């Protein structure tokens, strides 16, 4: 059932609990949400304080009922005294930064109660996994992060309340109200996407197929957004094709970044399915991308990317090869995608894997201002307490929209 808890500072918390849950376990959940220790909490229902050992159903709590949580200073003193007398192993209190005074005791308190762990898995699965682990530092890190997030949410609510009483003729106040309304629409849109389009938040695995290049098995990255078929220098050397490199076609490939073109291999056999096809390659000085099957060869061999059947059809359909599942793609290939994304966000020219890749003698990438703008957004969100990698992924997910990324991280 769902219950609502109002704290002394008028914070509203919605909890999903079992009707037979004890009041003490509810307090433990509130300790995680508010940072107020169990010893300091007083739970009131219909104006009467309830005991830790009582069950919610026994005291008459029903679905959508409201409980009040107050903070007892006397309880805080008694709790501190009890800890001092019984030893730090039983100390479940919380520091001012949100971390546990005794993380080991805090962890064991949750582990010993299967019902409490079940509630935690529903409300905060990430924290539940950390509790089941063996890294106490990670527990402290998550507790501090949740504390900062609660503070941020509380400040936002205070700002929203202040806007309700703002001068209607104050231009700055009206701008803030407009921003709050826009953010609310974004949040509602995000929640609708979570419900109706959850796969949109999952990582998309790129398209790879098995091929043979010059008799050597390869996993080719199929990219219709790349103008040319690309092979790295190290890969060409391993396949015995570097001796055919025509250096008259040197240049620079421009896409997300820029990479040096070492030359061109005009023709080499590739085997798709059981049929051989002639293929030409641009050779790039890019160790992070081995072999990319680009638009030039896709057009030449009349390829069809059939996502319904999850196959690549070659020669107008005479050969069909399945796209590889994630488990069949070596981890180093997935790391290439990660490298490409991180490089594009940090300003380091990544391997040319998509976009219009045009060959020219020289040229430079003009993304410096965009990179500095991206870094400033990353810095702002990191200051809110989020990890840098999570911030970068969120910004990339929402195409650099800072507000949407922040809403996603808080969600």
UniProtKB/TrEMBL annotation:
GO terms for molecular function: aspartic-type endopeptidase activity; polyubiquitin modification-dependent protein binding. GO terms for cellular component: cytoplasm. Residues 369-411 form the UBA domain. Residues 353-362 have a biased composition (Low complexity). GO terms for biological process: proteolysis. PROSITE patterns: UBA, UBIQUITIN_2. Residues 340-372 are annotated as: Disordered. This is DNA damage-inducible protein 1. It comes from Vicia faba (Broad bean). The lineage of its organism: Eukaryota, Viridiplantae, Streptophyta, Embryophyta, Tracheophyta.
């Amino acid at each position: 059932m769902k219950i609502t808890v109002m704290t002394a500072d008028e914070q509203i918390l919605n909890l999903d609990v079992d009707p037979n849950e004890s009041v003490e376990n509810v307090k433990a959940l509130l300790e995680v949400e508010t940072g107020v220790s169990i010893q300091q909490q007083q739970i009131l229902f219909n104006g009467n304080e309830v005991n830790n050992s009582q069950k919610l159903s026994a005291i008459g709590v029903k679905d959508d009922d409201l409980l009040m949580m107050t903070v007892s200073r006397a309880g805080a003193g008694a709790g501190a005294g009890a800890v001092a007398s019984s030893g730090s192993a039983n100390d479940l209190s919380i520091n001012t930064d949100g971390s546990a005074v005794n993380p080991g005791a805090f962890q064991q308190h949750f582990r010993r109660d299967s019902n409490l762990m079940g509630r935690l898995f529903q409300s905060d699965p990430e924290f539940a996994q950390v509790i089941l682990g063996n890294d106490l530092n990670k527990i402290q890190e998550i507790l501090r992060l949740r504390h900062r997030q609660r503070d941020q949410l509380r400040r936002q609510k205070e700002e929203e309340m202040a806007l309700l009483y703002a001068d209607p003729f104050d231009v700055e106040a009206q701008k803030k109200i407009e921003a709050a309304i826009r953010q609310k629409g974004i949040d509602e849109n995000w929640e609708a996407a979570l419900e109706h389009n959850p796969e949109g938040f999952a990582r998309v695995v790129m398209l790879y197929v098995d091929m043979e290049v010059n008799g050597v098995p390869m996993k080719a990255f199929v990219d219709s957004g790349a103008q040319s078929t690309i092979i790295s220098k190290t890969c060409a050397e391993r396949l015995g094709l570097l001796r055919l490199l025509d250096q008259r076609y040197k240049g620079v490939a421009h896409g997300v970044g820029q990479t040096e073109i070492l030359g061109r291999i005009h023709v080499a056999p590739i085997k798709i399915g059981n049929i051989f096809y002639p293929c030409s390659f641009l050779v790039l000085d890019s160790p992070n991308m081995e072999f990319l099957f680009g638009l030039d060869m896709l057009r030449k061999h009349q390829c069809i990317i059939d996502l319904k059947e999850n196959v690549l059809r070659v020669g107008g359909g005479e050969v069909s090869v399945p796209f590889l599942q994630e488990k069949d793609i070596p981890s180093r290939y997935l790391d290439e995608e990660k490298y490409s994304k991180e490089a594009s966000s940090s300003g380091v020219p990544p391997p040319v894997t998509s976009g219009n890749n045009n060959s020219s003698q020289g040229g430079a990438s003009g993304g410096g201002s965009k990179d500095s703008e991206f870094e400033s957004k990353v810095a702002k969100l990191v200051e809110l307490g989020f990890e840098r990698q999570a911030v970068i992924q969120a910004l990339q997910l929402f195409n650099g929209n800072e507000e949407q990324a922040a809403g996603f991280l808080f969600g």
